[in-house]
Amino acid sequence: MKIIKLTALLIPVLFVTEANSQNFELGKVSNKELLEKFHPEDTTAVAAVLFKKAKTIFKYNLSRGFTVNHEYTYRIKIYKKEGLSWANFEVPHYVGYEDMNDESVKFSNVVTYNIEDGTVVKTKLNGEGSFKKNVNEYWNLATIAMPNVKVGSVIEFKYILKSENIVKFPVYDNQYDIPINYSEYITEIPEFFIYKPVLTGYVKVKSDSKFVNGSQSYEDQYKRTTNLSYKQINSSYITENIPAIKEEDYVDNIRNYRSSIQNELERTRFPEQPVKDYSITWEGVAKTIFENENFGKEINEQLYLIQDIKMILKNAVSNEEKLDIIFKFVQSKMNWNKENGYFTEKGVKQAYLDKTGNVAEINFILIAMLKLAGINANPVLISTVEHGVPAFPNRTVFNYVIAAADLDGKQILLDATHKYTTQNILPLNVLNWTGRLLKQDGTSQEVNLVPTMLSKVNYTLMTKFNNLGHITGKFRVQKMAYEAYSFREKNARQNEENYLEKLENNLEGILITDYSVENRDTDLSKPVIETFTFTSENHCEIIGGKMFIDPLLFFTLKKNPFVQEKRQMPIYFGYPKQEKYNINLEIPEGYLVESIPKSIKIATEDNVILFLINTQVEGNKIQIIITKEINASILSAEYYDDLKSFFQKIIDKQNEKIVLKKIEP
Amino acid sequence: MNFKYVSFLFLFFTSLIFAQKTEYNSLSISDSLKENANAVIRLNQIEILISSQRNMNVITKRVVTVLNEKGLDAIDAVENYDKRTTIRNIETTVYDAFGKEIKKFKRKDFKDQSAVGGSTLFSDNRYLYLDYTPIQYPFTIVFNSEIETSTTAFIPEWYPLNSYFVSVEKSILNVKYPDNLGFKKMEFNFSNFNIEKTLDTSTNLSYTATNILAQKQEDYSPVVNTIFPKLMMGLELFHLEGVDGYAKTWKEFGQWYSDKILLGTIDLPDETKMKVKALVGDEKDPIKKAKLIYNFVQQKVRYISIQVGIGGWKPMLASDVDRLGYGDCKALTNYTKALLDVVNVPSYYTILYGDRKKLNIQSEFVSMQGNHVILSIPNGDNYTWLECTSQDDPFGYQGIFTDDRKVLVIKPEGGEIVRTKLYEDKGNTQISKGSYTLTANGDFSGKITIVSGGSQYSQKASIENLQPTEKEAHYKDYWGHINNLKINKMSFSNDKDKINLTENLAVEAVKYGSFTSNKLIFAVNAFNKTNAYVKRIRNRKNSLEIQRGFFDEDDVNVILPTGFSVEYLPANYELSSKFGTYKTEIIKIDSSNVVYKRTLFIKKGLYSNEEYEEYRLFVEQISKNDNAKIILTPNL
C-alpha cells in the first residue's frame, strides 16, 4: 500500500528510456564529439557535460547492515580555454560521523581523448593526478586533475561514493553553469526503505519507477554465502538538454532554482519490526525532531535557570515586561559561536555556563526562561537563505531554530543569537519563506517568516544654496525596523571617524560636522536617528549663468540596478522597504526658480512598486517630497521588466533639474 | 547612584588583589594606543633558537587585548605545520578586562585544517587554529606556541607591527644562533618607529619595539612593505627540506638553486624533442624560436596549483608536465625552459613576487624570497620575459603582475638581480575614436573604437574571453553613467604582436539627454568619464603612490538633432599639475556637428601625504569637467 503512495508522489512517465541513439557508455567517444567546435544549442558554452549518469544501490553486509553505493559517470567536452577548469574535479565526502564509518571515494576509468593528426589519442590518468586530502575533522576531499586536456578534448571518468548514511543521499545536481546534454539518475531501493524524492528547479525531469525483484548475496556469520531476496523499487530520472544556469544579481539562493534531485528517508519497515517513521508529514518531522535528545530534552531543561530568572524578574509585573527583560538578558549574556543547527552540541547547561553556544543552545535557553516566567514559548525550525527553501517536509530542510512567544494570542518571534535583533526583527538570512513551529504535544504549524511590514527610512534636509552654488544644510534621517537593524549590524561596531569618512564618500563627497546618532546601541526597539550639518560644493552646476540643481542632491540614483536584458530567477530584496525624502532648499538671493520638475507618481498596477515626487515653490523656498516603495520581499521574474523600467523612470525623473536664473536688475 | 559607584570600585580593587595577572588588565591601556585600534598587542615576544644548520625552534608568546569584534584577527592563534615542521606546543588563556582568567584552551581544543583551498589542488601544509567565541569586550588573550623545524632557509621575518587598526605596546625579538652559520640581518623602515636594538653579538640578537600606534589603511598608499618596519634574517649555511645550502651572494645562491633544486628536472622524451625541433624548423633567430615554443606551450598546458616537492620549491619534472599537460608556475616555467633548451635557446628560471603592486626581491639581502616564477630569455642587452602560466598572454608581455620590479634570475653560473620591464606612462594608452548621434528626444546612438596598449592592455584583454552576458555586464558597468544602455554590436581584435586590444562597439540608449523646461541637456563626454574617484581622507598619514601612469586620448564626433540650436557649449579646458595633464576641446563644426577631444595623462610617482589632497582635487576637477554639458534649445 505504501508503495502505491510513493509512486503517486512521482510523476509517472513511462517509456522514456531507450529513446536516445547516442552512446552513453564510458570509452565510446565518437569522432563527432571530439571534432565538435561549439555546443550546438549554446554556442557560448565553455564546456558541456555530454552525459552524466548516476546510480544509487544498496549493499548488505552482516556487520554494518545496509549501506549505499553512489556511482557516477561523466563525459565532458571542453570547447574553450575557460572550460579547462572542468578538467579538475573534486568530490567532498563526509568523515565526521559519530556512529558510522567514513565515506569513501574511488575514481576509475579516468581518460582524456584528443584528436591528434586525425587519430584519436587516449591518455589515462596515473596515480599522480589523483589526490586525497583530509580537509578537517568532518570532510575529506578527493580530487582528480585530468591529464593532457586542451581545448577540444573529451574527458571521461567514473567514481563511486560509498556511504553508510542511508538517511539522506547526496544531492544529485541536475544543472550546472554549463549545459548537460543527457542526465540520468537511477535509484534501486529495497522495499525496507521508503524515500521521498524531491525535485527542485525549472527543468522538466522525466521520471519513472517500477517494483521489481531484487537480491544480493552476503557472508553470514559462518562465512557462508547467503542470498537475500526482496522486492525493490527502481526509479529513474532522465533529463535531456539542460541549459546552463547563470548567476544573477538580487537572488536569494541559486540552489532554489537549479535543477536537482534529493532523496530523504521517510520510514523503514523491516520484516517483523515496527515501522519506523523518519519523516513524511510535518507532524512526523516534528515528532522525530522532538524525540531527539538534543532537542526535546534540552529544550525542557529548566532547573539551572531558576535562580537567575528570579533575580532578573524581581520587579517585573506584566508579561510584556518579562519577555522584554528575558530576551535582553539572554541576548546580552549569550554569545553565538556562529554555528547553525537545531540540535544542541554541548548542551544548554554547559552553554549557559560558558556564555557561548550554537543557535539551538541560545534560543533553547531563551525558550526555557520564557516558559519559567509563565510565557508560552515554542521553537520554530527554520531554513536560512543559504540553506534554501524548505519546500517539502523532511528533517534536513532545516538548519536553524528561533523562538516564538505567545503574548495574549500575539505571536512574537525572537532570536537571541545576534546582538541587534529585537522582537520580530530577525537576522536577514532567517527571513526565508516559512518556518515550522513545534509544540510540546507533537503538533506543528507553519509560521510566515517573510516580513510584510514596510521598513521605513525618512530623510529630512533643510538646505541653503549661496550664489556660488555651494550648499550648507542640516540632515536628519530616521531608520526603522529592518533598516535600523541593518544599519546597526553594519555600523554600530564601527569607529565613528571611519564611519563618517565612508558616509561622506557615499554622499558624493559632502563634508560632515556635528554628527550625532541616537539609539544606535541602546533602545533597539526605537528608530536609529542620525543628524548632522553638512556642506557641499558638488551639487550644483552653473552653466551659462544659470544654476542647475539635482532635485535629489546626493541621493540621485545614478545607475539602474537592473541592467540585464532577460531574467530567469525571482528578484530578491529581503524585506519591503519605503524611503521618504523631505528636501527643503532655500535659493540664493537674487535668483528665482526658472523651472522645477513636475510632481508625478509612477507605480505598478498593484502598487507593489511605487515612486512619488511632489515639488513646490514658495518664494525663495523649494520643497521636494519623494516616496519610493518596493512593497515586497521577493518578486517573481515576470516583474522584472516592470521593475527595470520603474527604476529607469525614476532615474529619468531625477535627471530633470531645478533651474535657477538671476533676477534681472 | 553613589552606591553603584562604590561597588564598582570595590570590584576593581578585589580583582587587583586576587588576580595574578594584573599585567593583562585591559583598563590600564593608554588612550593613545586605543586610538584607531581594534586590538592592542600588549606583548609579542618571539624567541628564535637556531641550534644548528638543520634545526630551529620558534617560541612565541603573544598577549593581545581585543577591544571589539573587528580586532579578533589580531589574536592570530594559528601555527602551520608540514612534514618538516612540528608544533611542539600551542595553547591560549583568556582573561577578562580586569585580568581575571576566564578560559584556557589546550592543543586538543585547536582545530586541524588542511591548507588546501581556493585554486590549490594539493598541498602538504596544514595548520592548527583556535576558533574562539568571545563573551565580552574587551578581553585579553595569551597565546603560547613553540614550533620546531629543520628548515632554516626561512627565518621568520620580524614585524613589530603587522596590520592596520592594531597598536603595539611592546614587541620583543630574541634570536640565538651558532657563530659559524653566517647569521645576517637587515632592518627596513625602522626610522619612524620606536625600535631599539638591545643586543647584537656573534651569537645573540635582540630588539624591543614599544608604543607603536595603530595605523589606518589609506587608498593610494605605497606597498605595506615600504611602510611597516620589518627585520629580515638569514643564514649563509641553511637547510631546506633535506637539502643543505650555502650562499653569501646572489651568485652563490643561484648556483645552489641550479644545482640542488633545478638539476635533473628538465629531461624530455625524445618524441617531444623531435616534435619541437620540427616545429622550429630552420628558424635561426632565438627570439622567433622562443615565440614558436611559447605558443606551443600555451596550446598544450594548463595551470593548476600543486604544492609538492621540497616544500613546494622543486618544480615538477618537465617530462611529467609533457605527459600530463598541467603544472604550476614552477613546473610550466621549467617545462618551457626544457623545450627551449632542445632548440638551443638559452633561458633562465626567474624568481619574483607576482603581484599587482610592484614588490621587489630585496636585492640587498640574499635569501629565499618570492612567490612566483617566470622565464627570462636574453635578448640583446635586455631580457624577454615569459609568463608561462597564461594561455592568453602575448609573447613577452608582462602586464601588471610582474612588470617593473627586481627579480632573481637563476643562471647556471649563478644568480643575478635584474629589473623587469617598465611600461612607460605614455605607452599605457587608450585611444578612442568614435561618434554619436543625439535625436530630438534625447536618445543616443553611437559607435566607438577603443585601442588599448601597454599596461592598459592587460586590463582590457580579459574582456575578450568573457561570456557574452558577462561582456554585456562589463560594458553596462563601464558606461554605468549611460542609463538604458543597449549594446548592439561588439567585436574585438587582439594584436598580440603589437600588444594592442581593439574594442569595437555600437551602442544606443534612450533618453541620454534630459529635458528641463524644454531644453535638451546632455553630457558631451559619453565614452570616457574618469572613474578614478579619489576619496576624501581625514588626516592622511601615508605618502601617495601612483604605481602606473597612463595616457588616454578621445576623439568623438557629436551629431546634434535638427530643430535645435546650441544655447551653451562648455569652454575648452586645460588642467596641468605635477600629477599629469588634462585637456578638453569642444569644437563646433556647424549647426549639427560638434567635435569633442579629450586627453588625460597621469604620471606614475611617489608624493608626500600632504600632496594627497592636491591629487584628490585634481581628479575632482577632471571628473567635474568630464561632466560638462551642452544645452540645446528648440528652434521656434
UniProtKB/TrEMBL annotation, chain A:
Signal sequence interval, chain numbering: 1-21
Presence of keyword Ribosomal protein: no
Pfam families documented for this protein: DUF3857
InterPro entries, A to Z: DUF3857
Domain DUF3857: 68-191
Keywords per UniProt: Signal
Organism domain of life: Bacteria
Name of this protein: DUF3857 domain-containing protein
Organism of origin: Flavobacterium caseinilyticum
Lineage, broadest ranks: Bacteria, Pseudomonadati, Bacteroidota, Flavobacteriia, Flavobacteriales
From TrEMBL, chain B:
Residue span(s) of domain DUF3857: 59-212
UniProt xrefs under Pfam families: DUF3857
Signal peptide: 1-19
Domain of life of the native organism: Bacteria
Family annotation (InterPro entries): DUF3857 (IPR024618), Papain-like_cys_pep_sf (IPR038765)
Alphabetized UniProt keyword annotations: Signal
Protein name as annotated: DUF3857 domain-containing protein
